[in-house]
Fold:
Amino acid sequence: MISIVTRCDICRTPSGPGLVEGDYGYRVTPVRSLQPSDADQLVQRVVDQLIGDAFVNPLVNPMVDQRLLRDSFRATNERAWVADEHKQLTGHLYGAVLGDRAGERAVWTGPDGVSFDDDQVLRELHRTALPYWRSTGAREHFVWCLSEPTRLEPWHALGYTLAAVRGSLELRARATREFPDGYTLRRGTIDDFERCLKLDEILDTAQGVDLRTLSREQRIADREELFETLSDDECHLYVVEHRGRIVAQCVTFPSPQRRGSFDHTIYLSEVVVEPHHEHRGVASALIDAALSIALAHGFGYVETQWRLSNLRATLYWTNYGFSPTYVRLRRALEIS
Ligand SMILES: CC(C)(COP(=O)(O)OP(=O)(O)OC[C@H]1O[C@@H](n2cnc3c(N)ncnc32)[C@H](O)[C@@H]1OP(=O)(O)O)[C@@H](O)C(=O)NCCC(=O)NCCS
Structure:
């Protein structure tokens, strides 16, 4: 099941400044805790970075509510770090420590949670952050990074690997493809919950989840999450029936505000076609229908996410017309 983790507020660190020595030569990158007085410089860094991202990828929205961002930098209550070279900030790093429903903790860094002028700055920021993140009990660090080779390299050098892709597509009026004979579409309801849960298992398997390894807590968490999604008034469940049986589904809902995403973006999730009914055009007709309804309701963009390990989905979404914007990088935080 795909879940969205939205960016939390940048939080304030209580501790004072400290120096971290660089790895090579005589250059030292001083890293210290973020202070409220850094807010203006950091806002400018984030604004410039997003403008750069949007220049490289027009599906990235460069607009930022600068006042809100400044306030969140000023009101930080969790640890974040800046590289301060003679009062000139050359980087920053923040990660929100979030727990999932099953109690697993991870650190999340959004597109505005990190900036660095060069690889050494990132290395020093990262070296400072790691012990703290480990001390929180978090097991993994995820970073949303622009899907662009030069942006990814510094993270790869720190041991991060590609985990998932955020794909985006501008919605336009276009002909919707017909369902193959015998397949019908209808809006799903909460009564379809158990069947959707079964289809979600197909999705989980395709995304590389070994269902046998799921703990009871994780199963309960998945169940609750799907129930919550389907109970939400803004969420649309679409199901496809064949001979009176649901064989495919998808869910859409207004995307929560996320850095780099446009307003009026619909989020597409839980897309599954039962294996026996694949390659007949069921998914394409289903998604065409869901997106044309979203367009009629005023949405201008659609986003979805897929795991890179899911080759079929990677091919499917790119063929459908989705383009990667940000990728989710992952690194385990070995707990010492
Ligand atoms: C990905 C998935 C949704 C695609 O569903 P699908 O119904 O097979 O998709 P479609 O039939 O619309 O299109 C699939 C391919 O079949 C082709 N196709 C469509 N109708 C066809 C037909 N009548 N004859 C032959 N091929 C056909 C399409 O052109 C498409 O080719 P492409 O992938 O090269 O673009 C499905 O494989 C699935 O549920 N996978 C597991 C869950 C999953 O990974 N979901 C995505 C999560 S991110």
About this structure: The pocket of coenzyme A is lined by residues 202-203, 206, 271-273, 278-284, 306, 310, 312-313, 315-316, 319 (CB under 6 Å). The radius of gyration is 21 Å. The helical segments are 39-56, 66-74, 119-135, 149-157, 193-206, 216-231, 282-296, 311-320. The domain at 170-324 is CATH 3.40.630.30 (Aminopeptidase).
